[in-house]
Sequence to fold (411 residues):
Amino acid sequence: MAYINDNYLKLPGSYLFREVARRVAAFKESHPDADIIRLGIGDVTQPLPQASIDAMHKAVDEMAHQETFRGYGPEQGYDFLIEKIIENTYKKHGIDIAKNEIFVSDGAKSDCGNIQEIFGVNNTIAITDPVYPVYLDTNVMAGRTGTLGADGHFAGVTYLNCNAENDFTPALPEKRVDMIYLCCPNNPTGTTLSRKELKKWVDYAKENESILLFDAAYDAYITEADVPHSIYEIEGAKDVAIEFRSFSKTAGFTGTRCGYTVVPKGLRGHAADGSLHDFNSLWNRRHTTKFNGTAYIVQRGAEAVFSEEGQQQVRALVSYYMENARIIREGLQSKGMQVYGGINAPYIWLKTPDNMPSWDFFDKLLHEVNIVGTPGAGFGPCGEGYFRLTAFGDRENTLRAIDRIKNKLHF
Ligand code: MLT
Fold:
């Protein structure tokens, strides 16, 4: 009989959002008439930008004719998209990124999860607590951690606590680590790190020869000037950081799937024999071996996001969701709740009333007012006593949800 990868046995039963979905399905089964409003998983609800739809229609037509038909494309992505990314995301902000430093993919989740494959299994990792579970779970699967302790921590992982007391700003690790995952604007807390804070991390990585794995999936939601849109805005970051970006939250591509990862040339690690190697070459090797490129049609849709109309439409989408964030934030505050995030991110992170355990608050919200959110504890032990609501719902449901919380939820 074949052996399994035992590391999978270290993981809790199911992925956080599957567990939420399971509980909601069970509730629906026993309450078939419940009018459930879902503000749990951060999934968008508004249609794609018209510019992307038009571009994808055109691309479908190209696929219908022999002269314009496309088979396998370059695994790293088509130049037409990569050039637009460089121009609009980086060059405009004075950041110099080369074409062969960008790898287009089917989304940031896959890349954040897969990137650890090009790192040694003995590397130490640091994650914030709470954290987007993908960073941690994929390292557990790879065998880079020990087992899960009663305190909710995996042995061997450095947890960087983030809570209201430290303003959701993680302190530098006391013990040196090799790989550090940062997400800004943050999922799940919706909070951000200032330029000065990020500089601290870049300097730490330089001094300690660590690598930052920087998730910028929510950068389109930044409204405050002091929050960098890319880690590469910080001097020296190209020597120490890999950056993940996505069209999912920016342009509603959660179901369409397109993202990209920047692996700067010159970002190096040691082999077991001490020789130095480029992470860019390793990622290129992995990408070309395991991935056959994002669909041509989808890449055309992503390219259109950078057109003038596309940019206007994307701004309108982001404003729509951020108005939801304001409605949620202010609605909860008017009920006397403590809320965080929602200014530079589409997530509102709230303190549960009377420090109620977050899965209990999940049940209370679901049973009393039929609203689905995400329990903070699902993102790590420091998330206990907190709860996340997403601003990605549609307006009507967002308003109805806040009305229910304000007028029908008792605590
Ligand atoms: C979330 O709800 O945290 C997001 O949907 C996760 C994701 O983008 O995979």
Summary: Residues 40 and 373 are 4 Å apart (CA to CA). The chain has a mean pLDDT of 97. The chain has two domains: 12-47+309-408, 71-307. Residues 41-43, 109, 132, 187 surround D-malate (CB under 6 Å).
